């Protein structure tokens, strides 16, 4: 799967007392020490922050790949000075997006470059010297969580001290920074760092008169506890929120439902669903996908079948994520699509080779096709877009698409498009740049179906053919 890191900062105002990092891991007390100057900015100053910073990390850029390859070679020889020179040269020669993209890969717990993650801090330091650098709490929180996980306590203490000194008079910003820290530590599964930040955020929330601070603080604490596999503590915070006059949102309930589900505590998950509905929130597609993925993690296919029927009864729409969650949990189905020689070329053929529960799941998904949101049809073009689909979902959608195309082209009720297009991507956003499993699967299906559709010369991530030619093929 593609790993995504999203950084978003919304400016806020107001402040609180200075905060320091609990270097000794005392959960409910904090050392009182003077903030330590850090980086090129003096304590107490803060560069103007952009009102919105969105950054995504998918496949590493080619420039980043070359950089990491050189770093790996330098690390292998133990040449520290060469490593530092490479970092300095890379940052100086790279635009902002490329440098931050490389840093995000080193910070991500899902990165394939974790063997180089110890270089994230030196890379960050060099980035802070650039003219385009803007201090960002989400970025710093991710770095702090990584340093804590790596046991780099000295660097961690300096980073936190510098960061909190910038925010010591801004209550909202300080609280949001600790919200980011709680979330980042939970994603890194750093127990000590998480508990320290949780204790500090709890203190900020309890001492604040701001409803905004309380709401955001509880949201992050509940989300973090659920991510750490502690949903019962999160439920206690729900009660605490109500006692403080802060109404829980659907987000908090979804986190608790999903946390129970991931742990296989299905009775508790159902109880949380009842509580969510009692609070006035309906079970929607997002919540349903969380439940389905939870069943899938524990191979609870019969429960998944029953829940899909419940979704049908409640008229809860299916989404691409619904397809992804269900099909990724079907072992026989997944083994079929991993063997290109065994591709069934129709829904009926596919169902015949699946077991009882898997067959029912595929039938349920086929009955609620998402083609309407993935396929466009007009006189100029009929286009199927497979972006966002995992391999299994793309395969099933392709089978459904062939049936739907045959039906429309032969009915006489639809205009024949001038061109037919299937968009599968070229691997730009795959975990390995340039390798698209979906494109390879579509290509093999086209060959097996003897389709006239061919790779577009102008866009290698698409298969195209004239509408009249496709009609002749299918009808």
Structure, described:
- With 475 residues, this protein is mostly helical.
- The chain has 2 domains: 64-341; 369-474, Ribosomal Protein S8, Chain: A, domain 1, CATH 3.30.1370.
- It is 58% helix and 4% strand.
- α1 (62-77) packs antiparallel against α2, α2 (80-93) packs across α4 and α7 (171-188) packs antiparallel against α8.
- It starts with 61 loop residues before the first helix and ends with a helix.
Chain-wise SSE layout:
Layout: H1 62-77, H2 80-93, H3 96-107, H4 120-128, H5 137-150, H6 153-166, H7 171-188, H8 191-207, H9 211-227, H10 231-243, H11 250-262, H12 266-278, H13 285-297, H14 301-313, H15 320-327, H16 331-337, H17 347-352, H18 356-367, H19 371-374, E1 375-377, E2 381-385, H20 391-411, E3 419-423, H21 437-448, E4 454-455, E5 462-466, H22 467-474
Parallel strand pairs: 2-3
Antiparallel strand pairs: 1-2, 3-5, 4-5
Helix pairs in contact: 1-2, 2-4, 3-4, 5-6, 5-7, 7-8, 7-9, 8-9, 9-10, 9-11, 10-11, 11-12, 11-13, 13-14, 13-15, 14-18, 20-21
Tell me the Rg in angstroms.
Answer: 26 Å
What is the total domain count? 2
Sheet with the most strands: spatial strand order: 1-2-3-5-4
The total of helices stands at 22
Strand content: under 5%
Strand-and-helix sequence, N→C? HHHHHHHHHHHHHHHHHHHEEHEHEEH
Distance between the termini: 37 Å
Relative helix content: 55-70%
- The beta-strand count equals 5
Could you say which structural class the secondary elements and strand pairing correspond to? mainly alpha
Report on the biggest sheet.
5 strands, mixed
Overall 3D geometry? globular
Q: Can you give the mean pLDDT?
A: 84
